[in-house]
Each structure stands twice: as structure tokens, then as C-alpha cells.
Amino acid sequence: MASLSALVIARNESANIAECIKSMQDIADEIIVLDGGSTDDTVKIAEGLGARVVHHPEWEGYGKQRQKLQNYATCDWCLWLDADERLTDELRHEIREFIKKARQNEVLNISRANHVFGVRIHHCGYFPDRVYRVHYRTYTKYNDSLVHEKLDLPSDAVTVNSKNSMIHYTYATYQNLLFKQTKYADEWAKNRYQKKHKGCCFITPFVKAAFAFFRMYFLQLGFLDGRMGFLISACASSYTFNKYLCLYQIALEHSRKK
């Protein structure tokens, strides 16, 4: 019978890790948490729920953290979950059936029901928001990206879209949103500069930010989510502005060193 490793990377996720682990216990043969140097009770909570915790406090980006974690997995299949995500009963059943019947080159592409400040968001590009989260352990792995990492899928990969969705509590508070977006913007810019070796012109952050709002609020029907749709679109615009401003700054610093 096919076995399943449930894998989570975490750092200071004491508010989330328990419910995340509990949602996987019924289907996982092993649950492994890679802790990135938590200073709260994340490790204690995870171990108390039967998860194996491995420690890698040195941070090399999300992609490499996932690569390290995958090396500890021992089962046939891997299920990836972030600490702020939860499996539903229906999705657990679907995953069980998937690993029973799937070929090694099939990858389960799971939709996410995203919640912002406790409110379910139906538009703004927040649904179905599919992510590849179940794959045969030796078939693929994550890329090296510092942020917004993805599975490197071979050319013969077969995508299977899930019928059910996981629950994703993206941002609990506005402060939480600001913290994450500031961190992601900096890491995105570093990753982009490492790959492209070039920055952007001064006007780019403004143009990109304006288009980000237009796309999310109008093209992705954010206005149908009411005030939350406007707020999320504005936050996306701010995040985009910060990403490209960070990129501009990094390129400027490198040019001054030459």
C-alpha cells in the first residue's frame, strides 16, 4: 500500500502548527517539520502531536529549505503543507484515493480557499489558486527560489486537479500581512537580481504597482469581494511597488560598487 510523508517548513508558527498537523494525522504515515530557528513553542507543539522535528536554523530561502526537508522523507509520496494551511475531510479522502491509484509521474494540483483577516476571498485571483502539493517522492523536488518556490516538474509530468480545496489562512492581521510582504519583497528582489543580474528603472515600481491594482480589482473581479476586494488589491499594489523598489535599490548598490 502506498505510504505518505507529510512535510511542513516552519518558523515561529506556534499559532498555526497544531491545527496544520492535526489536519494531516489521519492520512500521513509520517509527519516531518523542518524548523527554521523558532523562538516560540513551535517545536514543542509539533513534537507533542507526534511530528518529527528537524532543525535547520540557517536560512537559504524557501526552495532550499524544502529541498532539505524532502531529504528526510521516507515514504512513497510527499504531501506539502504550509503551517497556515489545513486539509478538509473531503480533501483527505481525495488524497488517499489519489496515492492509491496514481502513477509516479502524476502530481496533485490542489486548489486553496484563501482567507484574509478571517474572511473567505472568492475573487482577486485568490481562487482556485492551485498549487502542486502531492508528488511521488523521487520524481521531483522544489527549485532553489528564495521565495515563491515551485516544484520542478519533468516534461512527462501529468497534472491532476483536485476536486476539493485546502483552507489557507493567509494573513491573520494587517500587521501580519505587512511583515510577510516586506520579507517576501526583499527576497523576491534578491532572487530576481541573482538570476537576471539587472535591476529596473525608477519609474517601474509605480507602473507595476498601478497595473497590479488594476489587474486584481478589475480583471480578476476583486470588486465583487466588496471592501475586502479593494483592500486586498491595494495591498497587492503596495507589495508590487516594494518588490520593484527593492530591486531598483539592489541594482543601484551594485552599480556603486563597480
Automatic annotation (TrEMBL):
Identify this protein by name: (Heptosyl)LPS beta-1,4-glucosyltransferase
Q: Where is the signal peptide?
A: none
Keyword Transferase present in the record's keywords: the answer is yes
Q: A Pfam family for this UniProt protein?
A: Glycos_transf_2
From what organism does this protein derive?
Ruminobacter amylophilus
Residue span, Glycosyltransferase 2-like domain: 5-124
Family per UniProt? Answer: Belongs to the glycosyltransferase 2 family. WaaE/KdtX subfamily.
Q: Which terms are listed as keywords in the entry?
A: Transferase
- List the molecular function annotations (GO) for this entry: transferase activity
